[in-house]
Design a protein that fits this description.
single chain; 330 residues; TIM Barrel; 8-stranded parallel sheet; 14% strand
């Protein structure tokens, strides 16, 4: 049995269609709230809705909302967006990264998780089995005591380091993956520590073919990318349009280097559009339409100059690969 789990229902993999593999739609991360970082608070669902409709207008069909519990999810708002825009949205169980866990645990979560002072104290004091059971419930019953179920499980690590609590969260997510068969997504800070994460996942018996590694374009190192790809894992290039990190030519070159080595079936593309200033209808940014409307034609052109079938590669990155990556396999 195979299916993809969206917030509202399970669908056949071939129904997913053109997919952004890593976005954030409505979230109010407590860590950034406490520091007054308004740009990182996506707190107006109506503005997000307009960006989703732009994406839909250009042929988009599905979005993976990679917002974990420690990043201030608004599960009901995102589920409503899925319904209002008729978009398949995949939700995320699990965790992000340890520096976010300094934030106070919101009151709405204390009734679910317990009266812990912070996310960090929750993760520290609960056992791996207890944390795994929490993730399992969010996949099989619903996110944060709603009926909207997660379609992937997530863990993350920091920049050039992995803390003991991050290892604990990874172990819990690995156990949840084994129990539920949910696909796994990894946050790598600035694209670092993927190989170290892989070693830990192997220790937990996780088949890397069920794992996607985020932010690979933040570390634009073709040799490093090849080492990750050799494991069978997916590489998510989810920083499209973030020129402050690298020009678009760098990202496209890294992707084409993987294609040349035969790894085109393991590439995902998205924008990780997590700031108001990235959204068109919040703050005049490029918006969710940018990749499908502007980046895709450019990539096709560059791929064809290198002798590749650009249309075929785009189908793989946005349709075929997500359909495999986000599938539950029993």
């Amino acid at each position: 049995m195979t299916f993809i789990r969206t917030l509202h229902h399970d669908i056949a993999p071939q129904s997913l269609g053109f997919t952004y593999a890593h976005e954030h739609l409505v979230c109010r991360p407590p860590y950034w709230q406490e520091r007054g970082e308004d740009d990182l608070l996506l707190d107006d669902p109506l503005k997000t809705k307009q960006d989703i409709l732009d994406f839909k207008h250009h042929g988009g069909q599905s979005i993976v909302d990679a917002t974990a519990i420690d990043y201030g999810r608004d599960v009901r708002a995102v589920a409503q967006l899925a319904e209002d825009t008729q978009t398949h949205i995949i939700g995320t169980a699990g965790f992000n990264k340890s520096f976010l866990w300094q934030a106070k645990l919101p009151a709405k979560l204390q009734s679910i998780l317990g009266s812990y002072e912070s996310y960090g104290s929750w993760i520290e004091q609960e056992s791996v089995s207890s944390l795994a059971n929490h993730v399992i419930r969010e996949v099989e019953e619903g996110l944060e005591d709603t009926s909207f179920k997660a379609g992937q499980v997530k863990f993350g690590t920091g920049y050039n380091r992995i803390t003991p609590l991050e290892i604990k969260a990874l172990q819990a997510v690995a156990r949840a993956h084994h129990e539920t068969k949910a696909p796994v997504h990894s946050h790598t800070e600035a694209g670092t520590m993927a190989l170290e994460q892989i070693a830990l996942l192997k220790r937990e018996g996780v088949d890397l073919a069920h794992v996607s590694f985020g932010h690979m374009d933040r570390n634009p190192d073709p040799y490093y990318h090849e080492q990750v790809a050799k494991t069978g894992a997916y590489l998510c290039f989810d920083g499209i349009a973030k020129i402050k990190y690298a020009p678009e030519s760098t990202r496209i070159n890294c992707i084409l280097q993987l294609v040349k080595k035969g790894y085109e079936d393991q590439i995902l593309v998205s924008g990780d559009t997590a700031r108001k200033s990235y959204f068109k209808h919040y703050d005049y940014g490029l918006g969710l339409e940018h990749i499908i409307a502007k980046w895709v034609p450019r990539f096709k052109d560059e791929a064809e100059r290198e002798g590749f079938d650009g249309e075929s590669l785009i189908r793989k990155f946005f349709i075929d690969n997500p359909a495999r990556c986000f599938t539950f396999k029993y």
